[in-house]
Each structure stands twice: as structure tokens, then as C-alpha cells.
Amino acid sequence: MLFRNRFLLLLALAALLAFVSLSLQFFHLIPVSTAKNGVSSKSRKRIMPDPVTEPPVTDPVYEALLYCNIPSVAERSMEGHAPHHFKLVSVHVFIRHGDRYPLYVIPKTKRPEIDCTLVANRKPYHPKLEAFVSHMSKGSGASFESPLNSLPLYPNHPLCEMGELTQTGVVQHLQNGQLLRDIYLKKHKLLPNDWSADQIYLETTGKSRTLQSGLALLYGFLPDFDWKKIYFRHQPSALFCSGSCYCPVRNQYLEKEQRRQYLLRLKNSQLEKTYGEMAKIVDVPTKQLRAANPIDSMLCHFCHNVSFPCTRNGCVDMEHFKVIKTHQIEDERERREKKLYLGYSLLGAHPILNQTIGRMQRATEGRKEELFALYSAHDVTLSPVLSALGLSEARFPRFAARLIFELWQDREKPSEHSVRILYNGVDVTFHTSFCQDHHKHSPKPMCPLENLVRFVKRDMFVALGGSSTNYYDACHREGF
Questions:
Q1: CB 274 within 8 A of CB 323
Q2: Which segment of the chain is annotated as a signal peptide (predicted)?
Q3: What is the per-residue pLDDT across 393-424, written as a single tens digit (0 to 9) for each?
Q4: Is the Cβ–Cβ distance between 113 and 288 less than 8 Å?
Q5: Which pairs count as long-range contacts for 27-32, CB under 8 Å and 24+ apart, including other chains?
Q6: What is the pLDDT of residues 328-358, one digit of tens each?
Q7: Would you give the DSSP letter of residue 180?
Q8: How far apart are the C-alpha atoms of 267 and 238, rounded to whole Å?
Q9: Hey, what domains does the chain have and what are their CATH numbers?
Q10: Which of the 8 DSSP states describes residue 397?
Q11: Facing residues of 69 across strands?
Q12: What secondary structure letter does DSSP report for 429?
């Protein structure tokens, strides 16, 4: 009798739990993994908005917090995820520099007081921070391509200089580097313990914030690395186009895109009103305030929890910030719809994507050079690449954003190689224009390398329209 009562009690409890679970799923209080086209979505994160965790409508404060990317607990990521019979062959990492001091100041206001020295007892902190500073102090004689050899290897000013990397920016990339070390070195053994200088490729623009961000990630990835094995190449262009930067048609796309931005600003009466109010507060003409790009300085105040500036005429406040940030979000939305930026992106991103597939193809031949490539860059580097790849739902590159290309070999079919694309730890491979339909026809969890190669060598030009079949012709076609 006792056994029967216990059984009935357990049965009733199970029924109650099932009802609660179904109710929570129905009201979207817990996420539900669904299958699409016969492929489970459990193994793949999305870049689409998540209704469980994100605001139901665009929230400028929420978007700004994501942009700040304040380091917290170690994030979950999908890098390095593959079936056991796949072997990791090479990894290509594109990063935006970490958190920085503004490039512009709001006229007639006091600069935000941010300390750009690296201090152990100040948040945000990383366990390798002191060791990073110590190691950087030993690298003064390291070999960098000019003019990188004249740049400081870590930030060190009590009051940040314009555009200088902050402690937050250093910690962001120490954290990125450690995450990639745990996955690519400890788990997948991408590099041997006695790795050589020709097995890594490092390139950065000539800004201290990009060089220092690259060094912070590299130190997290390869702690106490041998300075004799390190050589950062200098890239003069933010597009990383090397010797292929002259492209008149790309510039024409950019001019049309900038005209679109200007017309959108003119239509936004609330934005103009906000600029007018702020201009009165700081006592400058509205045009001068707009030219000073106040959102750059305001984001620094916001990310570092520093009050917006005040004058005797009043204070810049959160409502001003929300209006300008909301316009930025609307601009990004219209940019995707108008497609002018896509044309610019296809031509702007082609050189660096072409370099990347070249390295991948050499790796498929068994060559062991440049197995790990790191490009330390800017938002204006990553944004065109994301657009060119067709990742229209990807957010604008946050501080310390990372975009990663992984090359894999199928051990069961050694001649077959596949790629995965990850953005800030999220697998976006099947959101790309060159592989968005692949999973409908194949159960394989990755995209064939030939899809990416075909996209870079041919389909990028097809997407531009016209009859161009190569980069030079696309850049110089007449009648655009």
C-alpha cells in the first residue's frame, strides 16, 4: 500500500513538472531548440535577436552596453567545436581593438578623466595583467616593422591620450587570448610547444591601440612568448588591402553611402533638436558640435560610468545620448536595406579575404607556415568583412570584437576541408551568403572550403552586378 501511494505521488509530481515545463516554453520563459530542415539547432548559436534575453524593441541603452563589452565572467563560445573525426588545420583571427579613450572631445567641456595606466587593484582585472606588463617591459628591443617599432607596447598615461587603449581594452583582449588558448592550443594542439616564428602571422595598423590589443591577445594566447619569434607587420590601410588599395569604384560606393547617411540625418528632426540643445549647453554652433562627433565621447562616459559633461548652461544627459544612439541604430538598419554599403564592402573586404583563402589553401597542401594568423584592426575593418560575408544581422563591431575563420580537415576523407566562421564566439557559418543553404543539402556541420573560395574568387563580383570577373576589373569598371 505504501509503495502504491509513493508511486501515485511520483506520477502526480511528474505530471506537474511536465505541465510547468510546457507552460514556460509556451510563454517563452525558457528557450526551446527547434529543428529546421532536419538539422538540430542545439549545436549552433544564432546571431538573430533572442526573444528570451533581449528587449522586445530596440533599446539604445542595451545596445550601448553590448558595444562597451565590459569584461565579466568568462563567456561561453563555439570556437573549436567539431565532430571528433575533424582535425583543426589553421585559424585566422580578426579583432577590433579594445576599449579606448575617445578620438574626439565635446567642445568646451572637460575631458573625461580616465586613467590609462595598468593597475592591479582596479577593475576590470585579469590574473595575467601584471605578468603582461612585466613581459611588455622586456620587449623594447623586439623586431617590429616600421613605424610600429616607435609605438609603446602597453598604455601608460595617468590621463589617457586621445584614442589610447584603456585597462578595460587590455583586459578584454587578455581574456580573448586566454579563451582561444584554452580551445586552440590546449584542446586542439594547433601549434606545437616549440612553435616557430613562421607558424604565426601578425599584422596591425599603425595605431598604438591596435598594436597593444594584438599584443594583449597574443600574450593571453601564448603567455611569456619568446620575443625573438614575434614580428608584427604594419598595415597602412584600415581595410588591410596591402598592395591592392586603389579601387575607384569602391570609393564611389563609399561616397554614395555617405550621402545616404547625410540625407538620413536631415530627415531626423528629433536628432537635429537634440544637437541644437547640446550645442546651446556647450555654447558652440550646432554644425561644430556635430562635426566633433559627440557620440564618441559620450560612449566613453557611458562605458566608464562617468557623468556626462555639464556647463553653466546645463548638462548633456542620458536623453541626448539615447536619441543619438537610436539614430545610429536606425542608420545601420537603413544601410543594410539600401545596399550601397554592401557594394563598398565587397570591394573593400576582397583583398583581405583573398589573402585568407590563400593561407587556407596552402595549409590544405600540408604546409605548416602561418597556422595562426592575427589581424589587429578597427571597426571600419571588421564591418565591411561582416557585410561582404552576408552577415546582415550581425551587430556593429563592439570593442574587442573577434571574427574567426577556422579551417578543418576530415580525417575520414583527408582530401576534404571545411571552414567555420565565428563572430564573438557565435557560429555564423550558415548565416553567410556563401553557405546559408548548404545545410539544406548536406548533414555536415561545416561549410566546404570550396564554397568560400568560389565566393571570393567569383561570387563577390557577381554580387556587384556587371560583367567583372576579377578585382581589378570590378574596381575600374566604367558607367557605375
A1: yes
A2: none
A3: 899 999 999 999 999 999 999 999 999 999 99
A4: no
A5: 28/52
A6: 999 999 999 999 999 999 999 999 999 999 9
A7: H
A8: 30
A9: 71-241+340-476 (3.40.50.1240), 249-338 (no CATH)
A10: P
A11: none
A12: G
Q: Which residues contact 415 (CB under 8 A, 6 or more apart)?
A: none
Give me 410's grid cell.
576530415
Whose grid coordinates read 563555439?
A: 78
Separation between Cα atoms, residue 212 and residue 233, nearest integer Å: 13
> CB burial class (10 A; 0-12, 13-18, 19+) of residue 361?
middle
pLDDT in tens, 44-88: 343 444 544 667 667 999 999 999 999 986 677 999 999 999 999
**Residues marked as catalytic:** 97, 379
* Burial label, 354 (beta-carbon count in 10 A; 0-12, 13-18, 19+): middle
163, three cell numbers = 584614442
The span from the CA of 451 to the CA of 448, in Å, is: 6
The DSSP code for 165 is B
Our CA dihedral for 435, 440, 444, 445, rounded to 10 degrees, sits at 60
Indicate the angle between helix axes 340-364 and 318-338, nearest 10 degrees.
70
Omega cis (within 30) before 71: no
